[in-house]
Amino acid sequence: MMYMAIGVGGIIGALLRFYLGIYIHSWWTDPFPLGTLAANYLGCIALGAFSAWVSAVKSVPVWLQAGISTGVIGSFTTFSTFSIETMELFQNGLNALGCIYILSSLFGGLALAWLGRAIVASRSGIRH
Amino acid sequence: MISASILVAIGGFWGAIARYSVNRWAARTIPSVFPYGTLLVNALGSFLLGYLIGMRAEQRLVLLLGTGFMGSFTTFSTFKAESVQLARTKQWSVFYLYIAISYISGIVLAFAGYALGRQTSA
Fold first, then answer.
1. Which of B68, B77, B88 comes nearest A74 by C-beta?
2. B95 touches chain A (CB under 8 A)
3. How wide is the angle at C-alpha A12 spanned by C-alphas A11 and A14, nearest 5°?
4. Distances in Å between the alpha carbon of A57 and those of A6, A120, A125?
5. Which of A6, A17, A113 has its CB closest to that of B17?
6. Do B81 and A44 touch (CB under 8 A)?
7. In contact, B44 and B98? CB cutoff 8 Å
8. Distance from CA of B97 to the nearest CA of A (A)
9. Which residues in chain A touch residue B86, judged by CB atoms under 8 angstroms apart?
């Protein structure tokens, strides 16, 4: 049950990331990898919020928690594509853009993971 | 578009299950506050995706193994959630070490995988 929930979650997460990328790159033509950054940012907020919500309501079945957090959100965000895109920016001599990409992923991701958690935690009255 | 989606979906299914399995294995083998499981999938996935891109794999293989499998096998949200958890519990040395090793290993291994993939295809 656990493996199936995570696998099905993985399908949903991977497809959402794929479609978001296609959509963003239909109007974004700059070499900055906005598609991956957007998926990673959204996933950080979502996982922070979902984890805080789960610990507040305490009644979500474990397989469903894992299916959504490990499966859907875990697969929606990606680190390998981030690494490759950073490499490609440096390979193409776009060093400043490469550094901006690393720093915006590093600090933006942390801030949004914290924010997603803090918003839900403050509403549900749990300590954060 | 439909066949591309099917390839991404198949890769995504197995990538998520593989990440979960590696995480469980790492938690059993090396019990630690340091998130070895996520570091391992992210480092390994960055290397293998670099290899795939370096060897100029055909489009369908990139969709199945790259966008689908490696995209789902590696994760950014869990990496950040674990980092925030380390900060909340004030384990600062682990926090800085985890972030530094993740970014450095990911980018260096992407370069290494790419270089190896270039050699293979040449």
1. B77
2. no
3. 65
4. 21, 11, 11
5. A6
6. yes
7. no
8. 13
9. none
* Average pLDDT for chain A: 95
Q: What is the ipTM of this complex?
A: 0.95
Write the pLDDT tens digit of every residue in B57-108.
999 999 999 999 999 999 999 999 999 999 999 999 999 999 999 999 999 9
pLDDT in tens, A23-70: 999 999 999 999 999 999 999 999 999 999 999 988 899 999 999 999
Name the residue facing B77 among A44, A84, A87 (closest C-beta): A44
Distance from CA of B46 to the nearest CA of A (A): 4
Q: Could you give the C-alpha distances from A68 to A6, A60, A75, B71, B75, in angstroms and in order?
A: 7, 11, 10, 16, 13
The string of DSSP codes covering A10-64 is HHHHHHHHHHHHHHHTTT--SSS-HHHHHHHHHHHHHHHHHHHHHHHH--S-HHH
Length of chain B: 122
Backbone phi, then psi, for A60, in 5-degree steps? -85, 125
Give the tens place of pLDDT for each residue, A78-117.
999 999 999 999 999 999 999 999 999 999 999 999 999 9
Quick check: A10 and B12 CB within 8 A? yes
Report whether B117 contacts B53 (CB < 8 A).
yes
Contact residues, chain B, for A10 at CB < 8 Å: 12-17, 72
